[in-house]
Amino acid sequence: MRGQAPLKVLCAAGAILAGCALAAAQQRPSGAAAALVAAPTALASARDASAEVLALEREIEAAVVRGDVAFVDAATAPTFTFTHGDGWTTGGAPLRVDTRADWMATVAKAPYASRVLDSVKTEAHGDIVITYGRYVGRFKDAAPGRRVFTVWYERVYAKRDGKWQYLSHRTVDGPIYERD
Q: Fewest Cβ atoms closer than 10 Å to its Cβ: which of 35, 64, 71, 130?
């Protein structure tokens, strides 16, 4: 029996080591589980990206109201497009589609008294962020019944060379004019 004691100790030690190895393997996630462990970091990154883009979107709206072409031009991509009107959502044509140059010409005229963002949400995909929401616009000079309007929109931003760029705007509902 005496000779069996070391064997029992070795077996017990082996079982403990095997149990520890199994526990360690179970605690070290792989595959989908590893992605879940990384998720908090990804969520924090998405929140940061969303906050940066929302701040930029507010700055762009303020610049549009001021008629600050330099700021809006620097914030937009060379391929920027602005789709006005929701006719395209039901198979029709939009009211118009501005290129970057067209939109800068509109911004230069500073036609808006205000453009207030409302109900804006984000969807972050790494270096791409989609925003969607509503803005309430007020023209400085327009015919009665055409001064105040709402637009529901979707916009796309991409991070390029370390800074966010505004790629496109699409009106998904509107403009809807309010009575003066």
A: 35
Number of Cβ within a 10 Å radius of residue 84: 19
> Residue 80 belongs to what H/E stretch?
strand 76-84
At which residue do the structure tokens 């009106």 appear? Answer: 171
Give CA–CA dist 26/115, Å, rounded.
54
SS3 of residue 155 by DSSP = strand
Give the residues of the chain that fall short of pLDDT 70.
1-43
Would you state the pLDDT for residue 15?
Answer: 40
Distance CA 133, CA 123 (A): 12
Nearest CA to 66 among 34, 113, 103?
Answer: 113
Task: Please give the pLDDT value at position 19.
Answer: 41
165 neighbors 155 (Cβ within 8 angstroms)? no
Structural domains of the chain sorted by starting position, each given as residue range(s) with its CATH number in brackets? 48-177 (3.10.450.50)
For 100, half-sphere exposure in the C-beta direction (CA atoms, 13 angstrom radius) is: 15
Alpha-carbon distance of 66 to 11, in angstroms, equals 80
Q: What are the residue ranges of helices labelled H in 95-140? A: 100-109
